[in-house]
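Structure request: AttH domain-containing protein, Polaromonas hydrogenivorans.
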Amino acid sequence: MRRRQFALGAAYAAAGTSFMGLAACGGGDSAVPAPAPSPVPTPVPSSAVQIHLPADHYLHRGAPTEWWWHIGTLKAGSRTFGFEINAASFAKDGFAFTQIMLADIANNKHYQRTTPYIPPFMFDPDNWAQNDVNKDWSVRLGDPANKLSALELTHPGSGYTSAPTVVITGGGGALASGIAVHDPATGKIASVVLFGAGLGYTSLPTVTLVGGGGTGATAKALFTYVSMDAGQLHLKKFERKGQKLVFTQAFFIASEPDADSSFLDTARSTHWSCTTP
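Returned structure:
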């Protein structure tokens, strides 16, 4: 679209120059001098170019940080929503994360979900995105085939003198592990982090915090992942399904929506949806 605008601008400029030339044909002193030509920019020599395509679209192994993100606007009838999807590696600090945000313009609300991924089981800094330019570009954090990819603290509890043990049961899988972070200043649990997602989870498991000398801390499992694929970036569409207007964004695939289908949950789902009046 921008190229078309530039082309029109150039056409108008050329037309304007022609018209000024015709006005000057009448003779006299009313002629408008042609504008001085702009200086021609000097090209950057190839030896000094720091951007190399297509390689710089791909993963840079050994890079301390690397980000991919997509932003845009969704419309449902007269309502407008802004979205942003981030997938980032902070290999220098030993973690990665995804962040999914949705802005409900009409209700002046902002929703977001941030999910950390810790190596070696949750995140491989050398292979979480495609680095081979001879293959299709792709990025992924989380596993779409294993319905456990994050833990969320739902209540910090009180009276904890040490970090409790995170116990993960059910869901049809095994070998998942997590850690709880204790805040000694308050005696509460500050956060819970999934250290290993295990294998074979077909539904969300139950998470229990055991020990630590306190009471009341609770957590839950989440199924959320971000997948970006160059071959699907163009697939954007709206579909009407019953009373819902569903937005499909194929480069982003993340968790199943919870039962209440709130915007926070649908912002994590394969299909983003909002109920229209």
